[in-house]
Amino acid sequence: MTPELRAALDGAYQVFARYKDSYDYTRRSGVSHALRNLTRDDWRAMNQEFDMVVLIYDENLLRHFLPRFLEWIEENNDDQDPTIIFDWLLWDVSAHLQRMGWRNWSSEEVEALRAVFEVWTREELAKHDGQIPLEFLLEVEDDLGLYLNLWVEERPLEVAQWLWIVDWNANENARHWAVEPNVEERLEAAFFAHPEGTGAALLSRTVELVRSLRAL
Asked: CA 123, CA 143: separation in Å to the nearest integer?
C-alpha cells in the first residue's frame, strides 16, 4: 500500500473513530484486538455467529467497520487473496453506502471517503494494468467528474471505448460528465496527438458522440 493511500485510510479511521461496535459483536466473537487488526477470518467468524446482515439497518455500525472494509478492498486488490469474497466487499459495501445515503453524512465523513476513492483511482491509473474502480464509483457517487477527469487525462482511448458501451438511461451521472466541454477537448487532443495512430478513428467517432449527446 502506498503512503498516499495509507494516509487517506488513516484519515478515514480518524473520522469514523467516533462510531463504536455498539452490539459488542467483536468481543462476543472472541476477537480481542483493535479494529485495524481485525482479520478476514475474524469477520467470517463474526458473520457466522451473528449474521452481520444487521449492517443493512444500522448506519452507525456500518460506519464503525467501514474504514477496515475499505482497507480490505485494497489489500485484496494488491494480493488477490482467494480466501475473501471480493465481490462482497466491493459490491455490498457500495450498496450499503448508497442505501444509507452516505453523501448526506457530515462533510468531514464525505470528504474522508472521497479522499480514499480519489487516491484509489489515481493509483489504479498509475499501474500498467490497473483499472479504475468504475462500477463501484458509478454505484456510490453522484458526481463522477473528479474520477472520470483523471481517467480521460491518463487514458483517453479507454474512456472512448467505455463511452460507446454506457447505458445512458441507467447512468445519468455519466451522461452529465460526458457532455462537459473538457471531455471533448481531451478526446480531441488525444486524436490530434496521433491522428494516424491506433484508436484514432475511435477517438474521432467518440468526439462526435459527445457532441451529439450535448445536443440532445
From this structure: 20
Residues 27 and 54 in one domain: yes
Identify whether the C-beta of residue 136 lies closer than 8 Å to the C-beta of residue 97. no
159: helix, coil or strand? helix
Amino acid identity at 153: E
Task: Return the amino acid letter for 126.
Answer: A
Closest CA to 73 of 151, 162, 136, 23: 136
Three cell numbers, residue 115: 479522499
Distance of CA 77 to the CA centre of its chain: 12
Domain termination site, one of 142, 157, 192: 142
Number of domains composing the chain:
2
| DSSP designation for 92 | I
Domain that residue 9 falls in: 1-142
Total residue count of the chain as it appears in this document? 216
- The angle that helices 156-163 and 145-154 make with each other, rounded to 10 degrees, is 120
pLDDT tens string 25-40: 788 877 777 888 888 7
* CA 182/CA 149 separation, integer angstroms: 8
pTM: 0.84
Domain boundary among 115, 142, 169: 142
Does residue 159 share a domain with residue 130?
A: no
Distance of CA 203 to the CA centre of its chain: 26
Residue 11 grid cell:
484519515
